[in-house]
Records
---
Amino acid sequence: MAKTPETLPQLQEISKLPVPDPDTLDPDIQKYMRVCEEKLGLVPNVIRAKALRQESLRTFISKYNQLMLSDDSGLSRLEREMIAVVVSCHNHCVYCITSHSQAVRELSGDPVFGDILMTNYRELNLSDRHRAMLNFTWKMTATPWDIGDGDRQSLYDVGFSPEDVYDVIDTVAYFNYTNRMTHGLGMLPNEDYFGMNRLPDPTAETKEAAE
């Protein structure tokens, strides 16, 4: 019987460029990393990689927080993460597919949904709103020069406001940028993301009863 070859270790690097020692970074960046560790259980590799240029990292954090975490949007956090995954799927961005599909699994509570989304969103049983949103996302990523009034109208037709359409466009544009930065830097995702939110928490009922 032929011997099955062993899998080679993966994710051995954070970035192809130098990654600064956290102890050498400015106090505000060190504090942000500590907050990530406390809230997420890890420091995302994108933060560590982009710390090579700390002012650029500050801009990245500010824009990410405004775009993805703000309540001042008609798009839910899940919808914004769905856009991130579909943009990254088209661009074959391993880092962003991995990290944002984990966020989709967490926010949706559905690992099947998250995995199909990152492979081919067209196979999902989507609402009219979400199908229109993701069709727009794919087209703006694949052939942005073809976006026209009819594409924006397709979003209005399923209930998006002008402000919502702006947020869809802003999110698509942002993740096309981050995908290209990730490819250029040769960034790889944290290994933790692959196993997170895959199965229901077996202690969830016990925790709920205790609360």
---
Amino acid sequence: MIKFDNVTKTYGNVTALKDLTLEIHKGEFVSLVGQSGAGKSTLIRLIIGEERPDTGRILIDDIDVAHIRRADIPYLRRKIGVVFQDIKLLPNRTAYENVAFAMEVAEDKNPTVKREVPKILELVGLAEKADSFPNEMSGGEKQRVAIARALAHKPVLLLADEPTGNLDSINAWDIIQLLIKINKTGTTVILATHAKDLVNSIKKRVVTIEKGQIVYDQEKGKYVL
């Protein structure tokens, strides 16, 4: 599904990724781990077309993201849901409206929005919070809304970049459990994090990056540095 083929990305004199080769198959749950500055976020930005590699190829379902036209990036991103540490919900909209807005931007019709938003909120365990505003929700609940918003287009790939960074351990584990649940529906999940205990509890594939290069790639592995 995703293939990095000898990808290098630099920012001035800093090499974020160096000759990185990685393949992720459809339906996998992959924890991408490493210290801050290891290259995890750069890899995420390359997948969604926010950055372009200096050399190498990035294929998503045979689409060469490294050379995709700017005009086609919005269509690529409809296949991909993204969740960040910085949640950025619309503060003046309810949980329902935050998810609905993501669908409306993609020009989904109103009957589709009314049918699908309650299903998505149910999936993330927030059916009873549909009419709540962000300031009425806990940090964990807000992150669940962010995940629901990322699922609005039924993506085949969900990228989670440090989604538990601002949460306590209980809420963090709840978010990980939700990501595992989403993965079980067939969605490929890539979790970028430096939360060692959480990664070791998942017991799925772990890819460790250090200084822009993969140093470990383990099935049902652990966070190794």
---
Amino acid sequence: MKKNYLIIILDNVKTLFYALIIAVLIRSLFFQPFYIPSSSMEPTLLIGDRIFVKKFEYGYSKHSFPFSPPFFSGRFFKQKPKYGDLVVFKTPNDNRTDYIKRLIGLPGDTIQFKNGKLLLNKEEIYRTKIINNYLIRCGINTQEVNAYSERLPNGKEYIAVYNKLGTMQNTDEYKVPKDHYFFLGDNRDCSKDSRYLSSVGYVSNENLVGKASIIFFSNDTISGSILKFWNWENSLRIERFFNLLR
């Protein structure tokens, strides 16, 4: 009888082990879920959104795998990201923290803000104002912004917002090094991104984790925890479920 119990226990352990291996492989090679904890990508991504990220989009580096094992360097099956991609990457200052931002600059590009307008390779990024006096979150606060539709050189369009009461007007020129990329948050005045060279700066090709592809779940954490099922009518953002990201 004891032997039968031992066999059952061993079978269960093997099943759990195989399930764990399959889960790690799926997470490392195909899709990984991420939670959006900040407002830096509003209005594209909201606090409480949960997204799937395609791990195979740019090939694989050590950061594609749990705990970033230092078994190899560089990338294999490498694919180049494109202007406007929503990219998850490991921040260069610790190679551990995951950020998601929009890719604005490729290797060799120059990026600069002049009079509050975004310049890429000295050419002003085309933008059209679509909303005045739009309210958006910045941390726990709400601020008044103007929303613009911006279009990058490859035709990629997205919505970016700028603080109406004062935005980043002028910067030095950023020159993107070889094998690095420059990222901005869509919530331009509430985003720690490549403009802040001491904390994020230029992101190495090796630090790319994957491309955001879909919002599969969304819950407004300010309206209530997901555990408060009696408040789901107010907190769940059902209209965002399974929205494709662009």
